[in-house]
Each structure stands twice: as C-alpha cells, then as structure tokens.
Design brief:
Blueprint (H helix, E strand, L loop, with lengths): L1 H14 L20 E2 H15 L6 E2 L1 H19 L9 H5 L48 E2 H15 L6 E2 L1 H24 L1
Antiparallel strand pairs: 1-4, 2-3
Helix pairs in contact: 2-5
Length: about 190
C-alpha cells in the first residue's frame, strides 16, 4: 500500500508542475518549443527540488508544502493590497487585473493562471496536487531527491521516443497527445459504467 501511495504522490507531484517542467520531461514556460536533454532535465529537477525543500532537510514533506502555501498566500495578499495597509478593500479586490496579476494578465508569484485558475502545488484537478494526494494537508509520505529525480527521468524516458537522450518538441507533443487520448479513453470507460 505504501508503494502505491508513494507512486501516486510522486506522479501527481510531477504532473502538476511540481518540477520545473510544464510537460513531463519538457522545459517550463516559453521554452516548450526547445529540446531538453537528460542532463538539463536533471539540473531543472534538482533546482526545483531545492526550491521546494523549504526546510532544507533533503526531503519534501507536508511541512514544506504548508510553508510554500503560506508564502504563495502572502504574495497573493501583498499583490492585492495596493496601499499596503494590511487590508484588501473592495476597490483593491475589484481593480482591473487584480486577480490576474495586472492589466495585461501576466503571471508570477501570487498571480493567477489561465482562466483564473491557479496552477501549482496544492491544487487538485487533472494531475492532482503538486506534492501528492493525501488530503488537504498534503502527502502522507516524504519524497527524497532521488525519488523526485527518478520519477522525472522515468517520464523523460517515456517521451524520448528515439532514445537519443533528448526530448524534442515533436516527441513532447506526441507524448502529450498519447496521454490525453489515454485519459479521454479512461474517462469514457468510467462514464459508461
């Protein structure tokens, strides 16, 4: 049972942006149209792990998740509190772009993502919460760097269709389409039951 929970936690963590890749094994943000090597992915994963390991104890824990959640909430509050008086007035709340990060809808710390949804750790939906399932307080297991890296590399290897150590945008797209088709098929089966 522990292996199932750990596997689910790791998979969910990586699917929701838990590592610095937007698509599994791919670069984040505007770099989606670039190829990424295994070495680059490891560097990205290690950097993301270091950022997520708030208490620097070498593992991702529910305490790390809570600390990151608080930091995000504080940043969102600060972004909305335009006059910095420690309160958010109705005018500040209703200001153009207040909940989207600015008039142009740019994203960043404390800003909302596509369609007003915040994407990242702790938010459910397709892909699950960033540090795994286990209830509102987060995962029930700690995740080490080795486990975090292994899951990312497994996903990378699945995308690297020609096994040359580099995932190209075409390979990333094909993998994404295959995962999406599998997800739709699974959803159709569940709906039919």
């Amino acid at each position: 049972m522990k292996k199932i929970i750990l596997g689910s936690s790791l998979a969910a963590m990586l699917m929701a942006g838990g590592i610095a890749v937007a698509a599994p094994g791919g670069p984040r943000g505007g770099d989606r149209d670039k190829s990424v090597t295994r070495t680059e992915l490891i560097a990205q994963v290690d950097a993301r792990f270091a950022k997520m390991d708030v208490d620097k104890d070498g593992k991702l824990t529910p305490a790390d998740r809570a600390a990151m959640h608080k930091a995000r909430a504080d940043a969102r509050f600060a972004a909305l509190d335009a006059d910095k008086n420690g309160q958010i007035s109705r005018a500040e709340f209703d200001a153009p772009g207040a909940r989207r990060g600015g008039p142009d809808g740019e994203r960043g710390p404390g800003k909302m993502g596509r369609g007003g949804k915040h994407h990242g750790m702790g938010h459910g939906g397709h892909g699950g919460p960033g540090m795994g399932r286990g209830g509102p307080e987060g995962p029930k297991v700690d995740v080490t760097l080795e486990q975090f890296r292994a899951e990312a590399l497994t996903r990378f290897d699945k995308q690297d269709a020609n096994k040359d150590g580099t995932v190209t945008p075409a390979e990333r797209k094909a993998s994404h389409e295959a995962m999406r088709a599998a997800w739709k098929a699974e959803r159709a089966v569940k709906k039919a039951q």
